Amino acid sequence: MDAAIQIEGLVKAYPDVVAVDGLDLEVRRGECFGLLGPNGAGKTTTVEILEGLTPATSGKVEVLGRSWDRDADELRARIGVALQETKLFDRLTVEETLRLFRSFYTGRKPLEVEALLDEMQLGEKRSAWVMKLSGGQRQRLAVALGLIGDPEVLFLDEPTTGLDPQSRRALWDTITTLRERGKTVVITTHYMDEAERLCDRVAIVDHGKRIALGTPNELIDRLGGHHLVELATEPALAAEALASVRGVRTVRPSGDGFVLSIDEPHVALPALVARLGERGVRPTRLVSRTATLDDVFLSLTGRTLRED
Amino acid sequence: MNDRRPLLALSEARIKQFLREPGSLFWTFVFPLLITVALGIAFRTQGPPRSRVAVVADGPDGATAASLIAATLGDGAGLDVQVVAPAEAARRLRTGDVVLAVEPTGPPGPGHPVVYRYDPTRPDAIAVRRLVDDRLQRHAGRGDPIRTRDETAVAQGARYIDWLIPGLLGMQLLNGQMWGTSFNIVNSRVRKALKRLAATPMRRGDYLLSFRMSGLIFVPLQMLVLFVFAHLTFGVTNHGSTLAAVLLALLGSWSFAGLGLLCASRAQNSETANGLINVVTLPMMVLSGVFFSSSRFPSVLQPAIRLLPLSAFNEAMRAIVNDGASIFSQGFPIAVLAVWALVTAVVAVKLFRWT
Fold it and tell me: What's the ipTM?
């Protein structure tokens, strides 16, 4: 069995909105898979269906080769979950909360609380009430609770939303370690840097549909080039004048100028500057940078990920 | 390290959370005592009752007649007599400050009738009217052909406070269990802690059962505090078996917790749950005989009232504590409580929403 998760034609319709609209996905065992999309794209709904918390309207969902209809009890023991912004029991300590959750995994071999406290850097806070924890500590506890049952698949829903940069990095390191240990991790996020850094493969979803699937590099390749040039000129140039420059793959209008994708900056940039000189125009903005998944999303939808 | 059964772990977590919440300790243990003190003071026994009577003095002639009557009445015990003007007498009668106004129409005698003004729907007014009339007639020379003698005794366990304490315990358990259970569940649902628990292999029934497990510890403790306090301050004693009282309290608390579970089973916010709880508790506080006997309601309602869980609890607890009855004589109320405990639990589990 190669696939940890298989989804075919998944639909979740609420009375007023279709949250997931015919989604197909396959997550392989041992990979870190990212569901990337803006808020309201249907990521959380999809993950909650995979976690057995929300029933699907239609479509096929298999987790570890099992279905929630028949094998719910077994699946709950074999997966781990960190929900988006769960508030647990304020007046239990970190250690008590871990021990409570550990007690639920009776038929299996859950992890040792001590080891997990160390690994998640919660040892100092073991006797602190959950209500006294910082955002980063709370999120580490949430991940620790997801791990306590030693799951085969771990679901992390927006694990770093609202965290300060340092806490984000610490959590990224933890997730990287998990992936190196061969755990299957499914992560939802609307941060493209997070997906690029953590995920072996990502699916970009928008309005409940999958609009792209592949490794971060593959998706960026599909833009036509790994480098982007943002260019605005005075007076303005026609797109054709830029598209014919050597090394330029695509030209897309953006604001008062264009975004050009290029393959080799050392070839395309001099040619581009030469073209500006030929036409006698002056650049008001000329920025060269590497492409990100946000650019992929932008080129697919015309919107940025952060737009709500 | 230590592997604990999930139900025990959940119950332990619940007890710890309860003990760490200052509010819950106050409402569970201190507040009921404050109510007990307030009611105990309001209804304390103060020797034989004295009834207040107004004698109306209308004008200078009336004043002479009034003081004569007042002197006659003031001779014996049981009356508190005041001489006042007609308008003042009418006012005191209306406000219930006096139960009877005695109004002479001239010097007492056959030619000038004495008028009694009172509200005949007040039982004490009728008794006081008889007493006053008796004194006046006897003073004027009426004889009693039959000799009588009074022998009085105050019955143990028959005071209002004795009757009140089991009802207060019922009210306390009802409110504590319903508000506690529902607050906890709705709060956990809003914070998505329920959803998180639902994503673990935890058995759903264990979570719901943990509320009843924590009751095993807190209910006897609540009883102990209330009864010891009532004993020390008001001399209230348990005339029945302590074990029977505790077992009954546990059964009662389970049926009350079941109602709380039911009210909280689907509520998405505390307003909804609180509204439902008020709808359930307030009628019972009135109908089920906490502060006054439910026998005051029409007899057609009695069978329905006896089926309410708080009525059943109060009935059986009073029988045990006040009358020393055996728990086995309380089959009907115990069956009512058991059915409530079972049915509410089953229905709540069916309706329960984890998200």
Answer: 0.86
**Helices then strands, each counted (H, E), chain A:** 11, 13
Residue A28: other Cβ atoms inside 10 A: 13
Q: Over 70: is that where the pLDDT of B254 sits?
A: yes
- B328 and B268 belong to one structural domain: yes
Return the structure tokens found at A192. 């493209």
This prediction has a pTM of 0.80
Share of chain B above pLDDT 90, in %: 42
Query: Which secondary-structure segment (H or E) carries B51?
Result: strand B51-56
Interface test with B, best of A50, A66, A88, A103 (most B CBs within 10 A): A103
- Quick check: is B149 in a domain? no
Domain-embedded: residue B298: yes
CATH number attached to the domain at A3-215: 3.40.50.300
Chosen from B11, B17, B186, B200 to mutate, greatest number of chain A CBs within 10 A: B200
Q: Measured between CA atoms, how close is A183 to chain B, in angstroms?
A: 18
pLDDT tens, position by position, A42-94: 999 999 999 999 999 999 999 999 999 999 999 999 999 999 888 899 999 99
Structure-derived torsion over alpha carbons of residues A67, A68, A70, A71, reported in degrees to the nearest 10: 90
Of B8, B191, B198, the CB nearest to A87: B191
